[in-house]
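re: ur msg from earlier - yeah i can do the adenosine-5'-diphosphate complex, just paste it... oh wait u already did. ok heres what im feeding in:
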Amino acid sequence: MASHELVIEGLRAEVEGREILRGVDLVVRSGEVHAVMGPNGSGKSTLSHVLMGRPGYRVTGGAVTLDGTDLLALEPWERAQAGLFLAMQYPVEVPGVSLEDLFAESFRAAGRDLADVRDRMVAEAERIGFDERFLARQLNVDLSGGEQKRNETLQLGVLRPAIAILDELDSGLDVDALRRVSRRVEEATTEWGLGVLAITHYSRLLHELKSDQVHILVQGRIRESGGPELAQALEAEGYARFGVDESVDGEPAAGVAADPFADPFADPLA
Ligand code: ADP
Ligand code: MG
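and the outut:
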């Protein structure tokens, strides 16, 4: 089994002169699943972008290494080759490039054998209920939100990275697709020892994908870490105890606390 380690130490970063990440510490090892939860705007996607090296984010402090290699000194494609994978919250449309093109290029660049890529694509698509006709389509072009998320998951399965950052992989997926996608990722943790940093609003992602640790990111800092029960508590209580008011104009935010099936008359202390 692979043994990789992503180490984030005191990571600080700013966007447009505003500090968003204010000292993040996190270690993700092969086979582990770390969930990062937090209210809107707390810096979750910023963390994913800074780790992958997206332009426009300025690292102002701290360090990130993968197996001892300084990731922050690398270009995004070099980080990918080092074994880091990002499933973006909002995947980018790439007109004129198909999934097959993408795999051909990335396998060639990494000196990996292309022979069984097509078979692996088909097998991965089947595992997550992703229609084969999407395989020849232009990358993410005219795909629904849920199809884009399955597209990202398929890439994960074919590329087999060491560490995957999943930014709201559950958004846009219906219940069945969510189950298959999260199960696929969970299986990867034992199949080749994938380490996962799963950013999510909802504990539903974590039903099939078993988190070892849950971290609460608030205003650019991890305020609390704990076991899977922390995600359940958040779903029930929201982020009020971190001093976060999730209501906007008196309406509850489309966030953690809103459970459409909750009993409005239930005694919260019962
Ligand atoms: P989350 O994913 O937790 O909802 P984000 O990381 O997307 O939060 O955003 C955190 C803060 O950083 C927000 O105030 C957002 O407006 C700001 N931000 C993030 N990326 C950019 C960007 N590229 N340009 C300007 N502001 C940004
Ligand atoms: Mg986000």
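cool cool. Residues 44-45, 89 surround magnesium ion (ligand 2) (CB under 6 Å). ping me if u need the other ligands too
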